[in-house]
Specification:
The strands form two sheets. A three-stranded mixed sheet has the order 3-4-5. By secondary structure, the chain is mostly helical. The chain has helices at 14-25, 41-48, 82-93, 106-133, 138-159, 163-169, 176-186, 189-210, and strands at residues 7-10, 34-37, 57-60, 70-76, 96-100.
Length: 212
């Protein structure tokens, strides 16, 4: 498939490069078979005049596609066929998780898997700062936090346990974890993250409306 398949990106920003990196690393597409274009008013005008019945699929990826641990959601245009969806799904699976959703869900997906990567990087940075505050070298602290974040995600994926259950399992009575959780609850971490997702979704909707 890598010899024959050609992939084009409308827009050559970070997300397009991340997906391209994932496709190349998985040997799904040859580097020479990938084309990208920068969006300008001229190219946008050409895009508004695509031939009738063009098969379109809208994809919402995230930056972790570059390391084949990304999240991609896609929805079909009205003329897209089942085989189009199957091909996109097969390709994007090489970059990580891939799910098909309704068009109306893409903004919410973006606020979690797209913006959420930025949110979690902020959490990683803050916890790394905490490690430095209590005496750890910066590099070691960041490595520990990043791997712990990966481990938490893998535990949820592979065990199917609710994150609240895993939280309870590592919270010994009177122990260190529950003491730290109390501080996070006082600081309204849950509410802040919920608000961040809601705000990002609203902003994505506003941007989409402005583009119409």
């Amino acid at each position: 498939m890598a010899d024959e398949l050609r992939v084009g990106f409308i827009g050559g920003g970070n997300m397009a490069r991340a997906i391209a990196d994932g496709l190349i690393k998985s040997n799904s597409v040859k580097p020479g078979n990938i084309t990208a274009s920068a969006i300008t008013q001229e190219t946008l005008a050409t895009w508004q005049h695509l031939p009738p019945n063009t098969h379109l699929i809208r994809v919402q990826p995230n930056l972790a596609c570059a390391v084949q641990c990304g999240v991609s959601a896609f929805c079909r245009g009205k003329c897209a066929l089942e085989e189009d969806a199957q091909l996109i799904h097969k390709l994007l699976l090489t970059c990580g998780l891939c799910v098909e959703v309704k068009e109306s869900s893409l903004n919410a997906v973006s606020s979690i898997s797209g913006c959420g990567l930025g949110f979690l990087c902020l959490v990683i940075e803050a916890m790394s700062d905490g490690g430095v505050r209590v005496g750890l070298p910066r590099t070691l602290s960041m490595q520990l936090v990043a791997q712990t974040m990966i481990g938490a995600g893998r535990l949820i994926q592979e065990t199917g346990k609710h994150p609240g259950q895993l939280k309870d399992e590592v919270s010994s009575p009177g122990g260190t974890t529950i003491a730290g959780i109390q501080t996070l609850e006082r600081s309204a971490l849950r509410s802040a993250l919920i608000d961040a997702v809601e705000t990002a979704t609203k902003r994505a909707t506003e941007i989409a409306e402005q583009g119409k």
